[in-house]
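It is worth pausing here to work through a concrete case rather than discussing structure prediction in the abstract. The textbook approach is simple: state the sequence, then state the predicted structure, then interpret. We follow exactly that order.
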Amino acid sequence: MSAGTESVTMFASSAPGQLLLIAGQTLVVVCLCFDMVRALSVPRSHRRYVASTVFRTLAIPSVIANGVTVLIALLLWSWMDVVTGMFVLVAIIFRLHHDKDEDNWWKGKGKKLARWARRQFAGRTSTAPAMG
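Step two, the predicted structure:
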């Protein structure tokens, strides 16, 4: 084992490391619970809108947190944790990309943010008064 992997496994075994891993796994569980609520709610309802918004908001941080957990399990040679973690990782990514037509707060925000950024960073060509 190299020094880098040893320090990662030592941190993962420490109390602060365990607290961070627990917080990450809690985030994953909350994300998947909101996905379940979204799947079981009536289409075009407020409940589904809120569940879809929360799921889309938490999906990327959940993938990152679960990826770190899988990496640590891989460094600890815990193959069962690697397999189950990868299953959850694939499930979250699949669910994130599967239902693109869901109505949520994020829908259409990309175009609005791009338009705003274009306006903010566009070269402003204002003519300076002639000094003379």
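Step three, interpretation. The mean pLDDT is 85. Helices lie at 3-13, 15-40, 46-75, 79-98, 109-121.
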